[in-house]
Design a protein that fits this description.
Shape: globular
Order of helices and strands: HEEEEEEEEEEEEEEEEEEEEH
Strand content: 35-45%
Mean pLDDT: 81
Structural class: mainly beta
Number of helices: 2
Oligomer: single chain
Low-confidence stretches: 1-28, 261-288
Largest sheet: 10 strands, antiparallel
Helix content: 10-25%
Length: 288
């Protein structure tokens, strides 16, 4: 008999003694939106451009629901641009509280509204990024329209061949302002797929990416004039599989997620056992 099965029996027995109901279900393992972040800071100021280079060291394969993105602050809102391990793979550029879509991106790109975690517009394109390649993520203020609204373009460049892909143009009000150096920029890895019962390599394949410190107000003819950022911190969000994420480095920062078989059902049951004991010690009668 597997150890996890024995542990299930033990916890069921303890729960019965405590007068509690307990069932083993996949919902006990909440791993949706488990994430890790590397924080970078620019000198305070208003900027027309942010660039960041990401290297995909280990591809978790299409359909693994991983998002590798650069979250950029603006004076009145924020946005992000990055690579997704959807099936097919893609690139996504979004700005919260934006007004609409401007110029279309390269053939195959789409632009439309999003909701759920705030509202705004995003541009997407299927993009077959590759393991071992480095990609420059670029956000650039491309101009204003007759109403004074700002237009922002999003690009991804494969530095292996200098091929650049234009995702599209997103429109913001003048009140949302410029890119804001007084707020932190965040480079993150996020799992956005469904919950699952075991934190195993099959369910949670390993990914590994490296983030170079972002730069601002680049000049492609004189790249040495770009304004550098400095690393500030590494942190991560919760979730049952959070033990399977690590972030190292202070710029470049390397983010690893998934892959190892620690935790999983056995780990979650051990955690449940600890919570049960803690609840009983505190006189609580609810299984949390």
């Amino acid at each position: 008999m597997r150890a996890s099965s024995v542990l299930v029996r033990v916890i069921r027995s303890l729960a019965a003694i405590a007068g509690l109901a307990w069932t083993a279900s996949a919902s006990a393992l909440t791993n949706h939106n488990v994430n890790q972040n590397s924080v970078f800071n620019f000198p305070p100021g208003s900027y027309f451009n942010f660039d960041q280079v990401i290297t995909v060291d280990l591809d978790p394969l299409p359909g693994s629901s991983r998002f590798f993105a650069f979250q950029f602050p603006m004076q009145g809102t924020l946005g992000y641009i990055g690579l997704q391990s959807t099936n097919p793979k893609g690139a996504l550029f979004s700005i919260w509280d934006s007004l609409g879509c401007g110029q279309e991106g390269d053939p195959g790109s789409t632009c439309g509204t999003f909701g759920g975690e705030g509202v705004g517009y995003h541009a997407h394109i299927d993009y077959d990024w590759q393991q071992g390649h480095s990609y420059r993520l670029r956000v650039w203020q491309t101009g204003t329209d007759g109403a004074g609204n700002f237009h922002w373009g999003g690009w991804v460049m494969d530095l292996a061949n200098r091929g650049e892909t234009y995702l599209g143009d997103i429109v913001t009000s003048a009140a949302q302002g410029w890119l804001d150096g007084s707020k932190s920029s965040i480079s993150f890895t996020e799992y956005f797929g469904p919950d699952f019962a075991d934190c195993t390599p099959a369910n949670f394949p390993e990914s590994l990416v490296t983030w170079a410190p972002p730069t601002a107000n680049n000049n492609d003819q004189n790249p040495g004039q770009a304004i550098a950022s400095s690393w500030s911190a590494n942190n991560f969000g919760g979730g049952a599989c959070s033990a399977q994420i690590t972030t190292t480095g202070t710029g470049p920062a390397q983010q690893k997620m998934g892959g190892c078989s620690s935790g999983g059902a056995g780990g979650s049951l051990l955690a449940a056992l600890g919570l049960l004991v803690l609840a009983r010690r505190r006189g609580r009668v609810a299984f949390v």
